[in-house]
């Protein structure tokens, strides 16, 4: 199965319009356009009934001690963990493209609604739900796509892995605010094919050469 994007090339920088935050000279970061990227796919296996798309950052810091702290740096050798940015399920078997901005445009404080989504699909919650849980102004259930917002003092550029799964079932037995882990468990044994691509993003000005708007 072929899988690509017109928004960025595999292994290259993700444009800041697809990010939750962008670099700001005065305050380190500012909110960005938060548009979901464009994706397209082809050479789908026979018998495909639906698609699932999951985006994960495998480079999230495992400890918050130094995150976004003045005069400190998140070291590159700190152990890392996964942070989910998008959980999209039940894309129709006939679909071959997701337009840029079709599922997300702008940052929504307290999160976008769900699980119902455009194009007859459903979306789970991403990990901003937990990240903002203690924030009085931002806490809520964050359904759908919310783009990159790595620590501005991280010595490591973050990778964002988008994986498309072709399934032999058209619906998943999931309700409410389901997670990426729940989706992975539900699709076990039903994956006919999968394909991945990744982009790079950083909010550290020292690492941002080549990153575009």
What can you see in these coordinates?
By secondary structure, the protein is mainly β. Helix content is 6%, strand content 31%. The protein contains two helices and ten strands, in the order E-E-E-E-E-E-E-E-H-E-H-E. It has helices spanning 128-131, 180-187; strands at residues 2-4, 21-24, 28-31, 39-42, 50-61, 80-92, 97-98, 122-123, 158-167, 191-201. The strands form three sheets. It has a five-stranded antiparallel β-sheet with strand order 8-6-5-9-10, with helices on one face. The chain has a three-stranded antiparallel β-sheet with strand order 1-4-7, with no helix packed on it. A hairpin with a 3-residue loop joins strand 2 and strand 3. It starts with a strand and ends in a 12-residue tail after the last strand. The model has no long low-confidence stretch (mean pLDDT 96).
Name its key features.
213 residues; mainly beta; 6% helix; 31% strand; globular
Summarize the structure.
With 213 residues, this protein is mainly β. It has helices at 128-131, 180-187; strands at residues 2-4, 21-24, 28-31, 39-42, 50-61, 80-92, 97-98, 122-123, 158-167, 191-201. The longest helix is centred in the C-terminal third of the chain and has 8 residues, at 180-187.
Spatial strand arrangement across the major sheet: 8-6-5-9-10
- SSE-based structural type: mainly beta
- Uncertain segments are none
Number of strands: 10
Largest sheet: 5 strands, antiparallel
Task: Give the rounded overall mean pLDDT.
Answer: 96
User: Helical percent range?
Assistant: under 10%
Query: Cα distance, first to last residue?
Result: 30 Å
- Radius of gyration from the CA trace? 17 Å
